[in-house]
Each structure stands twice: as structure tokens, then as C-alpha cells.
Amino acid sequence: MGKYDLYLKKQSDGSKSCTFCDKNFNKQKDGNTNVYLNHFKKFHIKVFQKIQGNSLARSEDEPPAKKSQPLIDECFSEFSENGPKSLAIQRAIAQLISSAALPLSLIEHPGFKNLLHLTVPRFRPKSRLQLTRNELPALYDEYRDKLKMSLASSEDVSVSFDGWTDSSQKHEYLALIVHFVEENKPAYRILEVVDVSAKSHTGEFLAEKMKSAIDFFGISTKIRCCVRDGAANARSASVEICDVNFDCLGHKLNLAAKAGTANFAGLDSLVLKLKKITKKIRMSSNLRREWEQIFEEMDAPTLVLKKHVETRWTSLYEALKRAIRVKEQLELFLQDQDNLEFITASEWKTCEAVLDMLQPLNDSIKLVQARSFSASSIIPVCRVILADLQTKKKHMTARTKIIEKLSEELEKYTNLKYLNIATLLDVRFKSGFVDSKWKDELLTMMLATITAAEEGDSDSDNDGVTDVSQSHSDPFSRFLQSSSSKISKVPLDKKSVLVGVSNKLYMMDKQKNYRNMIGGYRSTRTLM
What pairs with residue 49 in β-bridges? Predict the structure, then answer.
């Protein structure tokens, strides 16, 4: 008896029919059962699964399995006004415009419409008005809510802020950025961009604007430090946000570089000449062709001069470096330009001297601008730069000015408990860049945390956790014990929070308060 015979009826002529739907099958030769298999698989899926021995057969009240090929109506409805494909494409367009800072007129551009027509002919994009009133605000709300949820799960965050003005001087904005740890990785997000054109930028006004965003995202009690520039109004505003606040290292390095370059005679005239030459080449198509022709004749890749912009930290270094690189081509170009001043030999020497002096500062500024730079690196970077500048003997007057400026800022940084503890907790630096008193301070903080955890243990049950009060066998516990007599009178003869590897889970649970204490330092991995 075959496995299909239970579900088949035998006819008088020797053929068979289905017991469920009376489908007649021609008499099969050589015992071929493929026709039965295909029939049950297509029309009686539950019976087919039972025949095949599939224990996961669908019950009678379950809906039928979804067909692999959608119906025609489903295909057309996907691109209706509120169809899933239309909504997904419209959202992607809004993301593109906002993330790439593209003009809203893109949605009406013939080229963009042609692209959509070729790729998704059935899609009809919404108008610019709908994009402005509906799509972009909805997208903003979506990302704002996502950020709010991410910050809700973070125990410690840090913030930084700065302001800028557009070239027309009509619009002034303040950007507030939050730094936190997300999925064990450093993260940062723009918390708010505030238009501050309406009123004078007093510290009280700036603090009011930032507090509004901070309160909305619910992080007012989670902020561990605030980074800002050295302006008086910024300092005043940051005090209102967090007790721990300090100057941005990038700003300070830029100011130190300016203090040093101010002592080079002839640098101002050189920078002014390069600005005029750069502007002339950019504004005149004839001069631009002459410039490019010189590079072609010398069989060299065409390079343009870089413009020095006061507000960009490495702008002077990059402009002078490019001028040195195209020195030969620039001198040939100036020979035929009567309305442009020639650069003298002494000015070229000044250019090389400034580059040599600014090299360590330029490298440090790039390091500070990287998102991986942490607050724990501030003190070490300052000390390394000072050591490098003090070992060199050239241009001592200019270097002295930089050393004086950086030493002044380093003193401010080294007086901050936050930065010293952060440096100690960074495994790259440990105690190599901070005074010994901060090691004692860190141990005191850790002992206080341990004592608080012990006192909490005495007021609660162990819930089956093995008592480890007599265990001080691990090196860290012995180190804390030996150091306690020097920095604290807190006894360690009770149950220790830090025990051996066998009690690691117990240790992690009891050190929750300690982790909260240092969480603020960890949240500044990308602070600058």
C-alpha cells in the first residue's frame, strides 16, 4: 500500500481519484506518483505535509501560506499614494535632501524627475510644498524620538556647543552636541541648532536656549561635563549647564599658533600677497588658463593655491604648505603678471620657518578634530607639544610665545579633577602625565565607592550569593588595602567588593555605583 492510497479512491477502470475533491487521475504506468505529489502539494497542503512527515503542518484555523508571487492588485497598490513602496521612496528622498543639504527645489528639477521616471515609472513624488510641510517635519520627529530613546538608556553624557554666523552676517546659530556611549561605542548627535539672531548673545540667553533642548531630551541630570570656547558668554552659559566645564583644546591650539606666528616679520605681507594671487586666479578665466598651462608644460598635476581663512584652525598652515609645493610654478606665473606683487626670497624663508614651527601644532589640531579624540587625551597632548617645542632651538622668540600660551592653558587643565581622573583611567596614559596627588584622589574615590557598596550589602540579603568577606587574595584588593593607610582611614576588614575571578559576576554587580562614577569619564571618548 502506497503512502497516497489512504487519500485516493480506486475507480472501476483502474484509475484513481482524490477523496477530498474527486479529482480523477489517469491510470499511472510504472507506479509513477508525481501526479499525486503535485496535486496534494498544490491543493491540499496540510495533507501533503502530513504525507511528507512534516510535524509543523499548518492547523485548520491558520491562514494559508503566502504565495510567492503577489497578485496584480497588490503590485499596483504598492505605488499608490500611500502604498508601501511609495512611502519608502518618499522617505528616502527626504533623507537624501536633509542629509546631503540639497536644495528643496531638487524635487522639481527635470533631471531628478527623469531619474525617477526611468527607475520607478509608477512612482509619483510629492510636491515641494508637501515635502516641506509634511515629509521633512515627520522625518525630523522620527529621528528626534530615536535620539530621545537612545539618551534615555544612557547613564552619562557630555555636551559641547559653539556658535557661528553666515557670510551675510544675517543669521547666527548655536549648535548643541551631545556625546554618549551607544552599544559600547562612542557616539555623538546634534541635539539642537538654535537661531540666536534675535537677541544679544549673553550667557544667560545662551543657557536658556540650551536648557530648553536639554530638558526636552531629559538629560539634565546625566551631563558630566561641558566643552565650549573661551569667550566670556560661553563660560557663563556652561556654568548654568554643568559644574564641570572647560575650554575646547582645538581653540587653544589655534590661539597659541596665532601668538607664535605674530612674531614673524613679513608674514602678514606674504599672506596678503597669496590671498590676492589666489583671488585673481579664481576670478579670471584667462589667468586660470595661464596657471593650468604652466603645469601642463612642466608635466605636473594641476594644483590650485589654497585660501587662508582666519576662522579655520589649520588654514594658514595649509595655505603656506601649498604655496611651497607650487613655488616653481608660482614664480613662473608671476613673471608675466604686472599687477601682482612678486614673492621675495626672504618671504619664502619666512614661509618655510612658519611651516616648521607650526608642524606639531597642525598635527595636534588634526588629532583633536578626529571623532576618536577623548577628554583623557587633553593633558597628555599639551605636555607632548610643550616637550617638542622646548627641544627645538630655531625661532625661539615665536616658540616662546607658543610655550607661554600653552603652559597657561595646561595649568587650567591640570587643575581640573575631571580631566586628571579621565587621564588616569585611560589605559594609554595611566599615571604618566598627571601628578601623584591625583592617583591618591582616584584611590580615595574607589575606596569610598567600595565602602558604600559594603554598607549596602549589610542592609540586604545575599540572595544565595556566596559570602566572600574573607577573600582578599586578588592583587587589586591587596593593592587597595596597602594604599588605604596612606590616603584614607576607611577600613577594609569587611566584605570586599573586589574579589577573585571566581566571583567576577558578584564583583560586577556590587560595583554598579563605581561604574556610574566613572561613566561620565567614559562618555567623553569623542568629546572634542
Answer: none
